[in-house]
Amino acid sequence: MVSFYPGPSRLDLQLEHYLQDALRSDILSQNHRSDAFMKLYEDTRNAACRYLNVPADYSLYFLSSATECWEILSQDLGSLQNLHLYNGAFGEKGFTVNRSLHPDTANGLLFDKEELPDVKKYDAEVIHLTQNETANGTQLPLQWMQELRKLNPSAFITVDATSSMAGQLLPIEAADVWFASVQKCFGMPSGMAVMFCSPRVAAYGKKNKSPFYNSIHNLEVLFNKKQTTHTPNVLGIYLLNKILTHRKSLSVIHQTLKEQSLQWYKLLEQHTLFKPLIAHHTMRSDTVIAAKGEATDIERFKKYCAQQNYIIGNGYGDYATDTFRIANFPSHQPDEIAFLKQLLTSFQ
Which residue ranges in the chain fall short of pLDDT 70? Predict the structure, then answer.
């Protein structure tokens, strides 16, 4: 079975070997206050910063999921004036979590999936973004994010990059917090997330200590010891280290995925039954290809692919029945992509 589901998705091709390495290394039997684990934490953080172009002064926290990141950010930053800019279900979910904890300070601005929100000075102390909206296959252009940073220099900017981190070159300095689950572009099993925080956020967390256990302050205190607030996913951290150490450079992957996405959209534009969900080229995601069509045709196509042991993604939220999604992640191999394209082209 080859999974083109947009997460969890196809695993890194070398994962089997990395798993064997982990078992032989004995790291999985080490406790998370040991010298061995602290060295793994430091090595993985350094590998992640090098690979993802993260500034050296950003902290890295290991958490369970992007969903947990939503909650931690809401707990720590929610008393400030928060603004969530979103155009899809996952951005809205992050807003909903924050609003449930801070109904007076959490504000949302829904923008159209075919149009970028205005780049301007917002009346907010925290601005939350979803760089790649998995639900509808849109993304925020990197230059747009950099311009937003310039116009809002004092605001904390947080970015959910779950469907793009490790697949795109992201402007890390344009935001104070970046987080992502690892079951997409990282090519890993689900069950872990990474969250990078700037010194500004760490300093705010120290000054305004959250009463919650998994607070930014507690995470930062333990980060400085190369430890975690909880018993971590040691296997996940080990695999992340291996993948980021041995994978092709991110600049190469970024360009490859961009070219592949253009090919996918061109194929959909020429198809008799399906079309890209997003008409505006600038808004189209490079890593999650969303296609629309009649519900009956979509259901037939999913079954047609499954018969060949290829799995594509269901639609999500408002688009559950009349769309499907195809992951365009680094782990997908050229021959697998070519075969799925053949399935799409031949389907009538």
Answer: none
